[in-house]
UniProtKB/TrEMBL annotation:
<dbReference type="InterPro" id="IPR007922">
    <property type="entry name" value="DciA-like"/>
</dbReference>
<protein>
    <recommendedName>
        <fullName>DUF721 domain-containing protein</fullName>
    </recommendedName>
</protein>
<dbReference type="Pfam" id="PF05258">
    <property type="entry name" value="DciA"/>
</dbReference>
Amino acid sequence: MSRLIQRFLGSGEALARLQDHAARLRRLQGTLEAALPAALAEQCRVANCKDGTLVVSTRNGATAVRLKQMLPSLLEHFARTGHVLDTIKVKVGTPEQVEWRAPPPERHISATAKQGLSAFAESLPADSPLREALERLVRRGRE
């Protein structure tokens, strides 16, 4: 399957350029990870590289500040590994979006229903899990 994808990606000129650019970004990501401490490397991703400018995305502002302090040594590290860059831009990425969920609906139990549930719970054996659940329901239920 991998060969089919490689053949497809290499078939057109635009797709071949895209494949080359993606491969270059993967190499740059590996070089970036090698240059940074492990805790910092997991917070940074190579976003793009164009016209000698490498764009690195970070998860938060603190990581961006730390990375900006390291820019001179990072440029030197990239040059030693064969990736000559003019500048490195650091950008704070957007936080991961958490899927929104509607709050659970509030459920109300009338006073009559509470009395009925309490009476039924009292008729069950003391060690019954159902009795414990019903008593908890009556305690937590809102009128």
